[in-house]
Structures are given as structure tokens and as C-alpha cells.
Amino acid sequence: MTIPSDTSEKNIPKDFSVENIYGKLTDDEILQSRKSHIQSVRLAFKSLPKTRTRVPQHDASFVGMDPELVTFESASDPLYPKNWPLRRKLFTVVVASLYVGAEPFVSAAFPKSTTLSLAHSGSSVFVMLMVKIVPRLIGLVIVGPLSDYFGRKVLLNASVSILIGSSTLVHVYFDRFSFFQLASFSFLSTLGASSPLSVGPKILNDVFSPSAVGGGLLVYLCGPVVSYFGSPVAVNLIKEFPAGYSSGCFCVVMALLFALIPETSPAMILHQKVTVLRQLTGNKHLHTLYEITREPISVQLRRHLGRTFAMAGSHPSLYIAMLIGALLFGVIAAIWALWWA
């Protein structure tokens, strides 16, 4: 594994080797010490006030309890996303907003992927609504907690890949696929499109303090807004060039997005750091606070679902926002129809 520049040897604060930590203790004594250290950290962690993240901004205060615990060095550690330079934060938010803006561009480039023929299939409107609504709910509710486990970058790249691949298949094989095949790929396409909407706010929370999130949100919204209104024009301009040239340029742009989006999840950043330290020191028992205190993903999903339904039942403003969004989408769809006509 290549050592990231941010976690190179010069940034390693101390020796995490087993010999340096435990000296001449026997294997059984080392095992008992490890269990005791981890138990102490878990008990101290449980005593912390419950927050949405359940992990402190930096966990250096736990180092004295566990010598094999890898943490951020302090609250000002440059590895911590909230301590990144402003230009890097803005760059990260801009790239993340482009992921959210991928859906309208793909919809404009592959118009058949957004429409299924009800006439040739005899299907009900209810089925079509489920194909479009259910994956959005799944993406908004489930993908967020998954990004805490697997990282923001992996989830964003996977979701956009699913969006582009499924939309392309539906558009190319629209007349050959059965309705079930069209509905399945349309389901995946919508799921891929909705996932960045769930991961994006987490990226904002990763890199900005609560007082600065508003400014980051304004930058973040530029991508989808520009994409919704600029995609039809951009697609028509692209179609003026040969198909191979256009496809090549599109692939280059997506490859750059995949490569440039940085990981912002503190858990994954520390995971990269501890992976490097394990290689350099040979101590395979090094760990992070996230790894030894993380709840099972089933528990996180259950809590997230409960919070979502509680919010849906207690915030009427959400329904107003959904109505406004539906009206706005209808206006944009009408503009697209007039444009293509």
C-alpha cells in the first residue's frame, strides 16, 4: 500500500511497536493489558455526552488509557478535516456538488433513462412511482450511515458509477429490455442519483464548523443548480462533436472526479493512518477509537430510520419543501420538453 503524504513517516508521532509499548512482558500479559486498555477506553467513551456523531472532535485524551490507540494529535491536527485550509475545504465541496449535479446531466444526455413506456407494458402508475420514490428514500436514509463505515469517497464514486451505468443501459437497450429489466435499471439509476444527496451534507459537516456550514452550503448548492439549468445546453453542444470524442471527454471528466474527491470522514482518515502505522511498526493490534467503539451498522441504521420517521411526523415544513421541489421539478421538466421540441 502506498503511504499517503499526510500520513508519511515524518508525521508519525511516536513508536507504536510492541517492544516499545510492552517491553519484556509475556504474550499472555500483553493480551491482558490490551483487553484492560480497550475496556478502559470504552468505559470512558460511554461516559461522554451523547452527540449525533458519538465521537469527539479529537480523541487525544484517550491516549493515556491505551498506548496502542491511534488518534488525531490534537484539536489543531492538520489531518482533521475541520482544520484543512479554506481553499481545500471549498475545493472538496465544489467537487462533491458536481456529484450531486451528475443526475440532471445524465438525464439530459440519456433522456430515455428517465422515462418508461407504460403503454407497451401495461404497468400501473403505482409501480412507476415505486421505481422512482423507493430508491430515493433508500438513498437518503441508508447511504448516509453506510458512508460512516466505508467512507464518503467510496460511496460517492459507487453511486455515480451506478447512475451512469444504469442510465446508459436503459437508454441504449430501451426497445429491447422487458419492462422488468427497464424498471430494475431505472431503480438502480434513481438510487445512484439520490445517494450523493445523503453523503453531501455529511461532507459539509466533516469539513466545516457549525458556524461556517451555511457558507459551505451555498457553494455546495451551485453544482446541482447549474447542472439542472445548464445540462440541456451542454448536452446539445457535446452532440455537435463526434460520439467517440464526446464519450472520451466525459470519461476523462468522471475519472478526474473520482481521483480528486478527497476522503473527509475522520474515521476513514484515521483508518488510513493506522494502516500505515501497522505497516511501519509491525504492530497489527494498533486501532482507532472509531474501530473499538463503533456500533454495529444494524444499530446505526435502526436509529437513523427512527430519527427520519420522527422528523417526517413532526416537521410539516418538510412536506412544504417537498411540494415546492415537485413544482420546481415540473417547471424544469417543462423547459426540457420545450427545448427538445
TrEMBL record:
- What does the UniProt keyword field contain? Membrane, Transmembrane, Transmembrane helix
Identify this protein by name.
Major facilitator superfamily (MFS) profile domain-containing protein
Q: Molecular function terms in GO for this entry?
A: transmembrane transporter activity
Entry's transmembrane regions = 90-110, 122-142, 154-174, 211-231, 243-261, 317-339
Question: Which SUPFAM superfamilies has this protein been placed in?
Answer: MFS general substrate transporter
Q: Does the keyword Transmembrane apply?
A: yes
Q: Where in the cell is it found?
A: Membrane
Topology with respect to the bilayer: Multi-pass membrane protein
Q: Which residues form a coiled coil?
A: none
UniProt keyword annotation of Secreted present: no
